[in-house]
Amino acid sequence: EVQLVQSGAEVKKPGESLKISCQGSGYSFPSYWIAWVRQMPGKGLEWMGSIYPADSDTRYSPSFQGQVTISVDKSISTAYLQWSSLKASDTAMYFCARPAYYGDYEVGWFDPWGQGTLLTVS
Amino acid sequence: EIVMTQSPATLSVSPGERATLSCRASQSVSSNLAWYQQKPGQAPRLLIYGASTRATGIPARFSGGGSGTEFTLTISSLQSEDSAVYYCHQYNNWPPFTFGPGTKVDIK
Prior knowledge:
The complex is a heterodimer. By secondary structure, chain A is mainly β. Chain A has strands at residues 3-6, 10-12, 18-25, 34-39, 46-52, 57-60, 69-73, 78-83, 92-102, 106-113, 117-121. In chain A, the strands form 2 sheets. In chain A, strands 2, 4, 5, 6, 9, 10 and 11 form a 7-stranded mixed sheet that branches. Chain B has strands at 4-7, 10-13, 19-25, 33-38, 45-49, 53-54, 62-67, 70-75, 84-90, 98-99, 103-107. In chain B, the strands form 2 sheets. In chain B, strands 2, 4, 5, 6, 9, 10 and 11 form a 7-stranded mixed sheet that branches. Chain B has a 4-stranded antiparallel sheet with strand order 1-3-8-7, with no helix packed on it.
């Protein structure tokens, strides 16, 4: 079974740093992109960025470029999302997801999703 | 960036009735559109990809249609467990991937 398991909920103070994780299993982890998606309280889904574990190629949404860092350790099938200085506005649920391939290795829909990591900054 | 819009924002439907949700893209995304269902406190669940292909395990009452810039998700006979927020997602042109703002489906 293809599965993404995320690290647990976090409560942090403004200015602190944080790294959350997403571990994949049941498939060839290096061969599939991992996406990070933010969901602020009561709001919709926002794509933050994606990383290709095989070569660490990383793409960011302009809205999140410079605000977060996405990284990966393919030896332990884990992707990371990190902040160097948290703000109250970073309070949100963060999901990782695995895009599927279609056609000629085009990156497509997100399935599966991790269970989410709730971050509270206060 | 491709902007996705959804209508209506909220839809209230009686059990057994049909629900039709709309999604529009600011430019053509071909058939490269997915739909997700999200219930409170849960991760999104893939329902439809390729605009009209049901994901594994999704009941036949869910169907998707459209191409280009106009898409629909239809729930043919609404069940109580279908109460959720539904999002469309274009993957034709990235970065960035973009989602619609969601349609909340309530059971009357």
